[in-house]
Design a protein that fits this description.
The complex is a heterodimer of chains A (316) and B (389). Chain A has 316 residues and is of the alpha/beta class. Helices cover 53% and strands 13% of the residues of chain A. Chain A is built from 16 helices and nine strands. In chain A, a hairpin with a 3-residue loop joins β6 and β7. The N terminus of chain A is likely disordered. Helix content of chain B is 53%, strand content 12%. The radius of gyration of chain B is 27 Å and the shape is flat. The chains are: A alpha/beta (316), B alpha/beta (389). At the A-B interface, α1, α2, α3, α6 and α10 of A face α1, α2, α3, α9 and α13 of B.
């Protein structure tokens, strides 16, 4: 409880919550603006979470359906902070050699042959061969040995196996990596870690507890419209509105694979390419030709008869 | 009633922060996995940024205290229940920019004086606020889950499930990994190892098939016709959940409910409580088709992949539309690696799968096996493992 009192005193010393909160609101709005100029539309809750991530230095775990822009957050955030983005794409069977480091053994072998003519003592040669020159840095090692704090994106962590997750946990708590031949490498700067997951596997509680959490829903009309306008500025205002309205009603249908934001943008591009500038029920046949950009499974596709498309188009 | 006009400002802060810290306890009571460390964190965060600003506080606490989607969904309701006084729509003063001391103090007053008085009240309300979707009546009429932790059969069930889990651990995948011994030479690995001996490959590296446990999805029918088997299967499911990490368990009757979290709860009493809440509709009618379709729509894409074994436990008595069941099974079958149906009635003499649901399901099953009791499951275990391979 003493802790609380101290904190409380601190909070109220700095001329109080109100002005603090107002500052914070400005920060959030500011970050939102910066993210927009980096091409990402974030709601205030997400911006607040990103700021909190910076404050606490904890990793951020982002979940959500495929295609809602989880990966994009990291990219946009890296742009905003003008930091390097280091990406580790997880997959089944991801191991130390792909995630952390690998010795460049081809070069090592060459070096051994060359060093045979050298008459330095053996220990010096050995030190030479197992030096950083011959170390191939994979994303995780790269991320902790940057001079300036990078953004580390660990994409689709649920695809990697549990053993890797446990290792990741260790890395995220200590920010150091030990390499048997070289010793322990500690982080020069702490990377800002963003982890995404599609929920194909249940992540461990330990990992979840260490992270901040944010769930991204499919965007609502206003947000998606803003995204389309930023990402596809060549689409006229009316078309953009219609496209978004169409996609929003498609999402409400019972589909195996709901279209994500990427699909919306693809479809907009497809419509423009086909020279369709307005969506109405007369043009249903032509719209159907472009639907392959939006609807990605055969079963879903069979549901989109000209009648259905015309009906949706009429409401746009 | 407490008045804060005269009180020191730091006292207000303390009360507020204590109240915020108490929120973790409230969430914990609602089944959130929050720890004491979290209280310190949120107090720290709250005092740094936006103690008095409701949206910021909400966003920050949400990202700090939620660990998964289910918690994320329920959070806002719980936040409102805890922080918003009854009949009020705003947390503190409406206009934070006004910022005068009086306004602040008055606003705090509302938030703070409420804390000792209504804390228990809030906890009592939690079930409704949590949005479990179970009404009180259903709660009372629900089944007695204390049977779930009876010791007699427990040990046998656990032993059997451990055996199943052991066997499942030995399933292998076609994917390869480096190993000390194996059948195929790992050239890359061999060259790497030869660095130690100056380029002469003295030790060879090998590849072997990786061991991978399949994911299991259990869909348990708990409708009335299954009454005498439901507990038995739930017990099996719990033992299996404790043994393997990648098991996902659902119960269904007229609708589908996930019980994995509740079954995994290490506190047996709380597990019972949670099941009580989830079990509304227990031993009612069955709509297998609708429930499976529900599963396909909500969880299927996420949970079922090419290494998933789906185990459906049901007697196949379905009051729904058989066409729906066929459709749902076909979709599910296409996603899953294997589909196994355990039917408790199957080992009754002279039984033929005449139930409509059962007949509809036949073409899509890899294995239809009896499973009325432990002995039956034991007998069917080798087949089960083989079909999951």
């Amino acid at each position: 409880m003493g802790n609380f009192q101290g904190l409380a005193a601190r909070a109220f010393q700095q001329e109080k919550g109100v002005s603090l909160a107002a500052d914070r609101m400005d920060d959030i709005a500011g970050l939102q603006g910066q993210l927009v100029s980096a091409g990402y539309v974030a709601d205030s809750a997400l911006a607040a979470t990103l700021l909190l991530t910076l404050d606490l230095g904890r990793p951020l775990l982002v979940e959500g359906d495929a295609g809602v822009g989880k990966t994009e957050i990291a990219k946009a955030f890296a742009t905003v902070r003008s930091a390097r983005l280091i990406r580790l794409q997880c997959y089944e069977g991801l191991d130390v050699h792909a995630a952390i480091y690998e010795w460049n053994y081809q070069r090592q072998l060459l070096a051994i042959k060359l060093l045979e003519q050298d008459d330095r003592p053996l220990s010096a040669k050995e030190k030479d061969i197992f030096s950083e020159t011959y170390l191939l840095k994979r994303p995780l090692l790269e991320a902790i040995s940057c001079d300036e704090s990078p953004v580390l994106l660990i994409d689709e962590v649920d695809r990697a196996d549990e053993a890797f997750e446990a290792y990741l946990l260790e890395l995220l708590s200590d920010f150091q990596i030990s390499i048997p031949e070289l010793g322990t490498i500690s982080a020069i700067t702490r990377p800002l870690v963003i982890i995404t997951s599609n929920g194909t596997r249940e992540l461990s509680d330990a990992l979840r507890r260490r992270c901040l959490y944010h769930f991204i829903e499919y965007p609502d009309f206003a947000k998606e419209l803003a995204i389309v306008k930023i990402k596809a500025p060549q689409a006229a205002d009316q078309l953009a509105r219609q496209v978004v309205a169409f996609v929003q009603s498609v999402r409400r249908m019972e589909l195996q694979k709901k279209p994500g934001i990427a699909e919306t943008l693809d479809w907009t591009a497809a419509l423009l390419r086909m020279g369709i500038t307005v969506i109405n029920d007369d043009g249903a046949e032509r719209i159907i030709d472009t639907l392959s950009a939006l609807i990605k499974t055969r079963d879903d596709r069979t549901g989109f008869t000209p009648d259905v498309v015309a009906r949706i188009a009429a409401t746009c | 009633m407490l008045t804060f006009e005269a009180a020191e400002r730091s006292d207000i802060g303390t009360v507020l922060l204590t109240r915020i810290a108490g929120f973790t306890g409230f969430l914990h009571a609602n089944g959130y996995g929050v720890s004491a460390a979290d209280s310190v964190d949120i107090v720290d965060t709250a005092s740094q940024a936006g103690l008095l600003n409701q949206p910021i506080l909400r966003w920050n606490l949400k990202s700090l205290l939620c660990n998964r989607y289910e918690e994320w969904q329920r959070f806002d309701a719980l936040f409102d229940a805890y922080f918003l006084p009854p009949n009020k729509n705003v947390f503190v003063q409406r206009d934070t920019t006004a910022g005068t001391q009086e306004v602040t103090a008055a606003g705090d007053d509302d938030g703070a004086h409420e804390s000792p008085a209504t804390a228990e009240h809030a906890v009592a309300d939690e079930t409704e606020a949590a949005g479990h979707g179970a009404s009180r009546e259903e709660n009372l009429s629900s089944t007695d889950f204390s049977e779930l932790s009876q010791a007699d059969q427990e040990r046998k069930v656990e032993a059997l499930m451990r055996r199943l889990a052991q066997r499942l651990k030995h399933l292998k995948l076609r994917r390869e990994a480096r190993s000390q011994r194996g059948k195929r030479l790992d050239l890359q690995g061999t060259i790497r190892q030869s660095v130690a001996s100056g380029g002469t490959p003295l030790r060879l590296a090998w590849k072997t098939r990786r061991r991978v446990r399949p994911r299991l999805v259990l869909l348990l029918d708990v409708s009335r016709s299954m009454n005498s088997y439901s507990f038995f299967y739930l017990r099996l499911a719990r033992a299996l959940c404790n043994e393997l990490t990648d098991v996902h368990c659902f119960i269904f009757h007229t609708r589908l409910t996930s019980v994995g979290e509740a079954l995994r709860d290490p506190d047996p009493w709380r597990a019972q409580e949670r099941l009580n809440v989830l079990a509304a509709g227990w031993s009612g009618g069955t709509r297998i088709g609708e429930c499976l379709q529900d599963f396909n729509r909500g969880q299927g894409a996420r949970l079922v992949h090419s290494r998933t074994g789906v185990i459906i436990v049901s007697d196949g008595y379905d009051t729904g539309d058989p066409a729906l069941l066929v459709e749902a099974l076909r979709t599910l079958r296409r996603r899953a690696r294997r589909m196994v149906w355990l039917n408790p009635l199957l080992n009754q003499p002279g039984f033929t799968p005449v139930a409509r649901g059962m007949q509809a399901a036949m073409p899509y099953l890899d294995l239809l096996a009896p499973g009325a009791d432990l002995a039956a499951i034991e007998r069917v275990l080798p087949q089960l493992i083989k079909s999951l391979q």
